[in-house]
Amino acid sequence: MRLAIDVMGGDQGPHALIEGAARAVIETPGLELILFGPHQQISAELSRLPRPLAAATSRLLVHDVAHSVAATATAAWALRRGQSTSMAQMLRCLAQGDALAGVSVGNTAALVALARRELGMLAGMSRPAISTAIPARGGRRCYLLDLGANVDSPASRLVEFALIGAAMAEQVDGIARPRAALLNVGAESTKGSASVREADRLLRESADSLPFAYLGYAEGGDIFQGELDVIVCDGFAGNAVLKASEGLAGMLVERVQLAFASRLRGRLASWIGKPVLKHLKQELDPVRYNGASLLGLQGIVVKSHGGTRADGFYYAIRRAMQEVEHNLPERLAKRWSFNE
């Protein structure tokens, strides 16, 4: 399996991303990664990999690209002047079939615009949606979309997102009839923005023919209850919910650890409960959920947090690999007809 990796644009620089890429290669026989960025800089980072990861260099191929997309660049700039950047070259490699998936930590607006142009959209989808699976009660998970690709979405696009999110839940998690809802500030029909209320009307009118169960409005807390498989919102609300959830999860793990360690009796309980604490941290650690899919493209692109470190980037690469294994775009295209 060969993936294309844009190692430029992250807050931590390429060092953390290359270390995460090396870990993915070491743990996955047959995985090969093409690293897009300045050859000299990438080669220097490869030479500084710790000894356990040094063996990965034979399967980390460097594609020399001098330029990258700045964090302040607009989508319009990327489309007009970004052809020589590491992001655009990575996506072109994917479009030409030289890699099965792409991963980037770069500018979200630029990534969405360039991916849409280079890879094209599934029939009937107007724009990609960024989506990830949020852990919920009972070992379940809920797909939340959009997470920032489209800050302000009309009703018709929210309906598209409901369709593609339900397709994701069915194809990846095997849910025969996913339960979907629109994120809103309350359950009353009069609440919410005009686009959300219109999307609700459209979904209710076609409820009998939808390939999922539309359950109306959901509030923020419903994401974690395990009673919904898909929650749809615009990118502004979705991104805020995601970042707040990650911050809360990190704070909760830290508070639990501090509470155990604060007293002698607590330290004894901490020692006894260490396996439980470790499991809790693993379950809630936002790093494990780094990497969000750009759904609706005719190809696999995963967006990693710009501030991610090596472990987080490793998980973003793992997510891309899982989508390749699921043959996700083809399965989504075959399952739903987005033209209807």
Task: Give the arrangement of secondary structure elements.
Elements: E1 2-6, H1 14-27, E2 32-37, H2 39-47, H3 51-54, E3 60-64, H4 75-81, H5 86-95, E4 102-104, H6 108-119, E5 129-135, E6 141-145, H7 155-173, E7 179-183, H8 194-205, E8 213-218, E9 230-232, H9 235-261, H10 264-272, H11 274-284, E10 292-295, E11 301-303, H12 310-325, H13 328-335
Parallel strand pairs: 1-2, 1-4, 2-3, 4-11, 6-9, 7-8, 7-9
Antiparallel strand pairs: 5-6, 5-10, 10-11
Helix pairs in contact: 1-2, 1-12, 4-6, 5-6, 7-8, 7-13, 9-10, 9-11
In short:
This protein has helices spanning 14-27, 39-47, 51-54, 75-81, 86-95, 108-119, 155-173, 194-205, 235-261, 264-272, 274-284, 310-325, 328-335; strands at residues 2-6, 32-37, 60-64, 102-104, 129-135, 141-145, 179-183, 213-218, 230-232, 292-295, 301-303. It is built from 13 helices and 11 strands. The chain is α/β, with parallel strands linked by helices and 340 residues long.
**Sheet with most strands:** 11 strands, mixed
Structural class: alpha/beta
SS summary, helix count: 13
DSSP strand tally: 11
C-alpha geometry:
globular
Order of helices and strands: EHEHHEHHEHEEHEHEEHHHEEHH
Return the average pLDDT rounded to an integer.
88
Quote the distance from N terminus to C terminus.
Answer: 34 Å
Ranges where pLDDT stays below 50 over 5 or more residues in a row are none
Report strand %. 15-25%
Q: Give the spatial strand order of the biggest sheet.
A: 3-2-1-4-11-10-5-6-9-7-8
> Cα-atom Rg, whole angstroms?
21 Å
